[in-house]
Amino acid sequence: MHEILNDPIDVVVQFLQNRVRPTHVRWGQRVYDLKQVNLVHGAREGRKQIFYFSVSDSANFMKLRLDTETLEWRLVELYSD
Amino acid sequence: MAIGRIIFGLKNDDSNGRVTDPPLRNRYGQVCDLPTTNHPMKIIMHIDFNSFFASVEQQANPFLRGKPIAVAGKGRNNMDGKPQDVSALRYERSIVTTASREAKKLGIKTAMSTIEAKQMIPNLEIIPGDPRKYAEITKRFLAILRRYADSVEQFSADEAFADVTCAAQDYFGAVMLAQLIRDDVAKECGAYCTASIGIGPNKLIAKLAGESVKPSGLTVVRPEEVEAFVLTRELQDICGIGPRTAAHLKELGIESTAKLRETPRSTLVHHFKSYGHFLYNASRGLGPDEVQYERVPEKSIGHSYTFPYDLETDIELQTNLLALCDKVAWRLRKGNFVGSVVSVYVRYHGFSGNGAHRKISVPISDGLELYKNAWTILQEIRDVHAPVRLLGVSLSSLVRMHAPSSLFRKDQKTAETIQALDTLQTRYGAGIWQRASTLKTVMLERIGGWHYDHELSESRSKIAS
Fold this sequence. Notes:
Helix content of chain A: under 10%
Number of helices of chain B: 16
Number of helices of chain A: 0
Strand order of the largest sheet of chain A: 1-8-7-6-5
Number of domains of chain B: 3
Radius of gyration of chain B: 25 Å
Order of helices and strands of chain A: EEEEEEEE
Helix content of chain B: 25-40%
Structural class of chain A: mainly beta
Shape of chain A: globular
Distance between the termini of chain B: 59 Å
Number of strands of chain A: 8
CATH topology of the largest domain in chain B: Alpha-Beta Plaits
Number of domains of chain A: 1
Strand content of chain A: over 45%
Oligomer: heterodimer
CATH class of the largest domain in chain B: Alpha Beta
Distance between the termini of chain A: 7 Å
């Protein structure tokens, strides 16, 4: 199942050597323990800098969107094996 | 150890007090005594990602690895915030821009329609393209190349030429650089993003070598091996010989590179005009070795779009043409351009089409003005009985300046409004405003992104008309 979403989420991150690494995601009532950060890429929306984190746990791929202006995290893509 | 070209300081003063460029240094830090231009024997590297868009998707999503996937030409559209099941998205009017290695093994080819691909492999996963992700990987890839090479020329989103004559000094050094580039690509772009590398004395041979072993090949063709190597390749393997040229050559009885080499230059020039010189040289492995790192200035800016269903009514055509014109106009104003030649291209249901262009008296950069001119052209060339599959509009004869101001208050007010809307778009991004009349138009993001969309060339319009 591959879904495109736009849901607000809570994210726990680690700050390691000038890098941000998401470790846990709470989406609705569920908490996902992330295993891997596979790719991080940035994009601009006007002057706003957005970062996308492609992360996965043992069963799901998630694309997380971080708005650096509002510091809001959203789940924008979900793929479940 | 520092590898690649190292530049100390910005400029040097020579003994006469003149400012000179800093010396180029090779990978050992030694001053390179090889002139980087007009060198009799250059070392050119061609780097090409394997199944680029698909590999980036597989890098991002580990659950796609090892599966046959195809990245579709039309991208995702999650701007409205509603959940969308990707497998249920419409792909009827889209093509496979990249197939994964696994899909290629099963016969899926680039530019195949997604419907055809799905019929061929029912379990093929079609992934909507994500241009921002690919643009970022391209940026990282070019940064890696610039770290090692004397000069770099981007050939496409996933391909580049690098002149490594000075940085490598010899073919052994070039192989070493290729391995370092590959390691850095794996580290900075992801281990699933692999590239094929070809090394040769010119761009033609480097590309031919790179494409001879895929995926993840590293092929070196030394100058003394060029003539023999070319004979091992098919005619269409040579960059610049496409299906139409190959068919023309076949009509002349030329079906192999060996046969092409035997053909006198005069015969090729007689049949292919100046292109005959290229064919004559290519069969001998001769090609350009100048790696141009300067960006070629834009000659035209345009957009074309294949609609999800054929457009039949004037109102549908008008609103969609206006939406396209607004996209073109925003790109023009962002680059501080005005243009004075409007081109329009239309393709019908049966894939026939026509186009035309017209010079206008006052250069423009406003979407509505562009639309008015484009609509006039479209009405003249359009077959009113044929449903429209694709529309394209472009503006050429570009000049870098602001649009000339009008004497009339009404036009001045329009210009002020556009300026205010541009400020909004610069601050919040494209798509922050839309004309009410275009609200019903839905244009999915293209694989190359709207900023990188292909342009309608004048020659194409002329051919079509």
